[in-house]
Sequence to fold (132 residues):
Amino acid sequence: MKKIYKLLMLISITMLMSFTSSNKDCGILKGNVFTYKNSKKNVVVVFSENKYIEYHNDQEHFIKSDIEWVNDCEYYLTIKESTLPNFPFKMGTKMHIKVNRVRGKKVYYKATLGGKSWEGRLTKTKREKFNL
Fold:
C-alpha cells in the first residue's frame, strides 16, 4: 500500500510541475511596442515578425534591425540602419538576445554583443502610434 501512495505522490508532483507557469510567455514580443530607459530617457522599441526598430531622442533618431527568431524567447538582431549620432556599431553587427522571464508587461532579457553581455528590461506600451 505504501508503494501505491508513493507512486501517486510522484505522479501528482509531476503533473503539478507540468501545469506550473514558466513565466516565459515570449509571444508578447511579436507585433508589440515596448520602452526601456537609456540615460534617463525612454527608448521606444517596435517588434514585428522580422523587423525591429528603436526610436531614440523623442523619435528623432532610430536604429533598424532585422530579426532572426530562434524561438519565441530567443532571437538575433542584425543592425541594418541607424541615424543615432556616434553609434558605436557597424551595420551588419549581430546581437543575441535571450528572454529570461516575462512578468505582466515586463520582459527581462540578456543581450550579448561583441563578447559583452548585459541584462535589461522592456515594458510593453500602447502601439497606436506605430506601424508594425
Notes: The chain has one helix and eight strands.
